## 1
Amino acid sequence: MTQVKDNHKEIIDYLFCAERDVREVTKVTDDYPALTVQEAYEIQDGLLERRLQEKGAKTIGVKLGLTSKAKQKMMGVDEAIYGYLHSDMLELEWEPVDSSKLIHPKVEPEIAFMLGEDLQGVDVTAEDVMRATKCIAPALEVIDSRYKDFRFTLVDVIADNCSSVKFVVGSKWVSPETIDVGNIGMVMSKNGKVEQTGSSAAVLGHPATAIAWAVNELGARGKGLKKGDIILSGAMSEAIAFEAGDTIVADFDGLGTVSMSVK
Ligand code: 0L1
Ligand code: MG
């Protein structure tokens, strides 16, 4: 059991209740301006522990955020961030996502990696990541920042588990050796109209580079990834908003499509 500092318990409760009650809240740093990135990850740990307990879920992987230079520039940072994926966040392609349980969701296209072996360390390379990867698949990540108008600082978004809420993975997993993972083109449509195009190269130049960064960050905190874990490697384009009745399809070169309908 993680030791949660007293002054972090209030923030954990605040963020947990915001998600549970489907309610946007003002950002944490408005009240706690001195919080550090390290403390934000400690708060994230506490929030995730509470979430796992109350939802009866288990950890099934990690997700990366702020992996594009454009988004980092927008936020005035030069680092990516990571959060965790829980079993209750995984949605099935053939079942609609329930928007009544979401605050102001957006969806973004990503490549999902599944590990064929454990991965932990502090000097892990992109090549190590590729070697440890069993297969990859097209994915859609739904992000739903608990903060009003999706406005936050780096510390806020880390504490909020990097806006994570849901994700869908396409049914076709392929070996990473069959495709140029660093140069996969993607077109994302909503209700048949193209909304975004992108490339896996937007993910820190190569998704495996982004994952290696996350593994090394985790390693520095004494953590690692396990065989079978899923990793959402980062958005390949801007996220788009959606609402009940919408259908989103992302089509990835060489990987096929992943879709999501919304009720
Ligand atoms: O998965 C993501 O890239 C989201 C990271 C947090 C930033 C955001 O909510 O837009
Ligand atoms: Mg994402």
## 2
Amino acid sequence: MRVCLCYPDADPAPWLSALRLHLPGAVIESWQPGAAMADYAVAWAPPQQFIDEQTRLKALFNIGAGVDRLLQLRLPAQLRVVCLDDAGMAVQMAEYVCHAVLRHFREFAAYEAQARLGQWQQRAPRARADFTVGIMGLGVLGTRVAQALRVFEYPLLGWSRSARQLDGVACFAGASALPQFLAACQVLVCLLPLTPDTQDLLGRARLEQLPRGAYLVNVARGALVVEDDLLALLGSGHLAGATLDVFRSEPLSAAHPLWRHPAVQVTPHISAQTLEAQSILQIAGKILALERGAAVAGVVDLARGY
Ligand code: NAP
Ligand code: GLV
């Protein structure tokens, strides 16, 4: 069995040695143009040439949960693409989103500002029952985030493409249910994949359907949100603030107004990072499962885009 690694953004050495450890007997190499045909590929943001040359893949493992970058390439319709399926990302995402939601609900930004001024001033507690948190995307990550948020007893809503049932979450499905879902969210957490259906989903029209004073947490992909519309609605006071981990263009340019907006928290796409050891273990396990003829989780529907 031959496995090729194509990870232009990273040092391939630790990936190669760990894959060799978990797949003894396999030939595992970094891809170079003209390399021998591989049975499996492990890749993040490969060039089109890689796809065009590697025509005998039994599967391509995407080193990440989101496949939007990969799906910008011309892929053979029959290519089996497998994405990372949690691999240590779900708990990180739960941590990040809980932090953002708690920080907003408990007004920690205001307390930090007061502390810098040496002001001892208690603020009135907010009503938990009025603080509805809605999660767009109830997949691997959205489900884990919902489980984590349940501990804090906020009313929870979820929205997905197909109907879902999650304990403690009032679930909505499909485009027709979106206005009703948005109208009830005091906090909107975005955990949708970026697809042709979700690109620019959160523009002015949809953001205006949130109640006045709502808060946005985007940890999915930047292109789901129309940033100029978000800034306009923050300026008008329709939105109270946002925590943003992802942006339409990354890295976010130094001049971008989101960096300096007082109600916006910016992080550099770190809400759920790929963990090398867990990811390699998962990918190697799935390669061995496919070799045995077993099914694996995380197979991407190329037509649907996730
Ligand atoms: P997933 O398991 O594939 O779940 C996707 C969810 O989105 C599903 O519930 C799906 O609905 C829903 N969905 C997709 N298209 C929809 C549409 N048009 N309308 C309504 N719902 C729709 O994905 P995941 O593993 O949870 O990851 C979600 C995304 O998080 C990734 O695609 C990636 O972009 C992002 N991510 C970001 C980071 C970061 O560090 N910022 C890290 C990892 C992942 P169904 O349930 O009906 O299929
Ligand atoms: C990170 O953003 C991922 O998709 O894994």
